[in-house]
Write a structure and sequence with these properties.
The structure is a single chain. The chain is an all-alpha fold. It has one domain (3-411): MFS general substrate transporter like domains (Growth Hormone, Chain: A, Up-down Bundle), CATH 1.20.1250. It contains 17 helices and no strands. α5 runs antiparallel to α6 and α12 packs antiparallel against α13. The N and C termini lie far apart (49 Å).
Length: 413
């Protein structure tokens, strides 16, 4: 195979996959770190997770800024800064002694760093593709799944062999040595380097292709439509449920006397299925559109949470992991796909950044609210029931979003 014939769009996907995997290395293990940290400092789970959610809230509040910076300067400098901040956050996290340290480190360094990594990637991939956008995003976001397969077991082993502080140090170093070098190979868009997006001719030859990067609606036009706010509400509800499971599934499993290593293995298994969900949903969205795929993913989340209410045996957790992993993987790739469908490419970075604020709200509330419910009731049952109700609302909203008929119709809104 001649590597010279590989479109740089696919090179971009591979680079983004590696960067996302490195980000997954450091964000997914929080569910493993939850119990050892709370036990050492005698903090409630909800108390610690409100501190963790500060990272999500701060990061989400900077989503628009990150999107604008990425649109203007390209992803390379923004992701480089993000990788440095995330790595520093985990290195410093290993030194905490009081709760305010957690708020300061996560709410500033990790919150900003995570936003500066993931948000530039989301509009970057659609810019490089006129076809196969869904599968390209599926491959890119599958990096989270790879990170999720490796790090739960690695983190649990490090905790058992050493302690949770050494786990944080190693994860921080991994972020720095992977993310920063890989970011140097990213390019803003094919038009800026004399190429067409994947799906067209290699060299720009006509005015129509030159304007492909400027099709769509401005940020101001997008936020004046009902579709922006409807999609935003869905992006609040879905992550509320997803982050509840990702943060609490290991603690929930060990609470009902499933061994810690087995519980970590369940989280790794979820991450493996997440990769399949991302690839399948990417393929599906290329054929039926992102919005119908969104409805399917949300429905699967509801089914998974209902099953989790009754899961007591290890095999039942693995059945849950299959359904939840497919839904989790699918949901994570659909923000840029649906945003491009609804609003085009001209201001995609800042639009995604604005929509990320809604994700921030859902993720920022999901895990700490569930942790607080556990602290009060000593059970996750009510938390899972709340998630089922919220996700049911999201399914209804997603059905309304199917009424969108295209950019021409949107312009009349």
């Amino acid at each position: 195979m001649n590597l010279k014939h590989i479109h740089y769009a696919w090179v971009t996907v591979i680079i983004c996959f590696v960067i996302v995997a490195a980000l997954g290395f450091i964000t997914i293990p929080f569910g493993i770190l939850l119990k050892p940290i709370t036990e050492e400092f005698a903090w409630g789970r909800g108390t610690l997770l409100w501190a963790v959610s500060s990272a999500v809230i701060v990061g989400g509040s900077l989503g628009i800024l990150s999107g604008r910076l990425s649109d203007r300067f390209g992803p390379r400098p923004i992701i480089t800064i993000g990788g440095l901040l995330c790595g520093a956050a985990f290195l410093l996290l290993s030194q905490i002694t009081t709760l305010w340290h957690v708020y300061l480190i996560l709410g500033t360094l990790l919150g900003v760093g995570t936003t500066f990594i993931i948000l530039p990637i989301m509009p970057l991939v659609p810019r490089w593709f006129t076809k196969s956008q869904g599968i390209a995003m599926g491959i890119t976001m599958a990096g989270f799944g790879l990170g999720g397969i490796v790090t739960p077991l690695l983190t649990q082993w490090l905790i058992s062999a050493y302690d949770w502080r050494w786990s944080c140090r190693i994860l921080g170093l991994l972020a720095i040595i992977i993310i920063i070098p890989m970011a140097q190979f990213l390019k803003h868009s094919p038009q800026r380097v004399g190429l067409k997006p994947y799906g067209g001719d290699k060299i720009i030859e006509d005015k129509q292709s030159q304007s492909s990067a400027t099709e769509g609606f401005s940020f101001r036009q997008a936020i004046r439509t009902r579709w922006f706010w409807l999609f935003g509400l869905i992006l609040t509800c879905g992550p509320f449920c997803l982050t509840t499971v990702r943060m609490h599934i290991v603690a929930h499993a060990t609470d009902i006397e499933i061994p810690a290593v087995t519980a970590a293995g369940i989280l790794s298994f979820i991450s493996g299925i997440t990769i399949i969900g991302q690839l399948v949903t990417g393929f599906l969205s290329d054929r039926i559109g992102g919005r119908p795929a969104l409805t399917v993913c949300l429905s699967l989340i509801i089914l998974a949470l209902i099953w989790l209410l009754f899961a007591k045996e290890i095999w039942m957790f693995y059945v849950f992991a299959v359904v939840f992993g497919l839904a989790n993987g699918g949901f994570t790739i659909l923000l840029p796909v649906i945003s491009a469908e609804l609003f085009g490419l001209v201001s995609l970075g800042v639009i995604i950044g604005a929509l990320a604020v809604f994700i921030t709200l859902g993720e920022g509330l999901g895990s700490p609210v569930s942790g607080t419910i556990f602290d009060i009731t000593e059970s996750y049952r009510i938390a899972f029931l709340v998630g089922i109700g919220i996700c049911t609302v999201a399914v209804i909203l997603s059905l309304l979003l199917l009424r969108y008929k295209g950019k021409t119709g949107m312009a009349r809104e």
